Amino acid sequence: MADKPAARETAEKQRQIQREQDAKDERKKQAGEKDDKPDKAVQAGTRKQPEPPLEEPHHAKPGIEASMTIKPRFDAPDYKGSGKLEGKVAIITGGDSGIGRSVAVLFAREGADVAVVYLSSHEDAGETKRWVEKEGRRCVLIPGDVKDSKFCKEAVERTVKDLGGLDILVNNAAFQEHAESLADITDERLEETFRTNIFGYFYMARAALPHLKPGASIINTSSVVSLRGSAELLDYSSTKGAINGFTLSLAENLIEKGIRVNAVAPGPVWTPLNPADRDADSIKDFGKKTVFKRPAQPEELAPAYVFLAAPVCSSYITGTILPVTGQIGT
Fold it and tell me: Among 201, 203, 236, 305, which one carries the catalytic annotation?
């Protein structure tokens, strides 16, 4: 069957486009030209953020922000508060450093008093407290282990007693350690990861629930690895997947009480957790595989928590896993 003239013309036009592109590709190949995509890190914020290579020594767990050579950026100097959380009280687990510290500072900038729950990094916690108070808000420091349900209950009760109530719970404390093989993950290690990363979230939410009123918010820190897995973070990724399931289920369970439950799923973020997991050689290129070709800084994550905490911003959002991954899609 003969092609119609219009079809022949279109086919020839497409072949011509193909020939032109093939010629361009060949010229680039012969000239040794590289792809047009830049290899340098992308900066899309209000100030330039640190880029790989990240020269940071290996740190002992749990990781101390004060000891880091390249300090995480948490203070978001260009973020202007507008009273979105005025008069509210928040608990943030793992609030002494990293994402938790930045969330504490921005919550305070938006008008909230903050209880910082942390394991043992007293110097870091004290610095977070200074920054919260610098914003003109109250801050209480509550050291302890979220693996202990009794401690979680005591932490909530102290917050309510000292700060006068509870409106926002941010579950953020985490344990992470890489492993090349499933055989490397002992029963003890598996239990440590799960009890910290998901049991602690259950315990804190359960303890907080009697004090939460309509308009309250629970925000869980998930991870990009909950969405696509990680070959070397088998136990950690599993707990983050469990956090997603917990978030969705608790959101449905509490919606009739007017309590919203959401999660933020960060990609690679520069916090003490990372050099306390990887050695200096491994950490140099941390975050380079994202489309930004660099890790996020905590101050680039914290506004997402403000958004989910503030009823004026997200009163119609619950059961959402908000990815802030530095990737297209997830």
Answer: 236
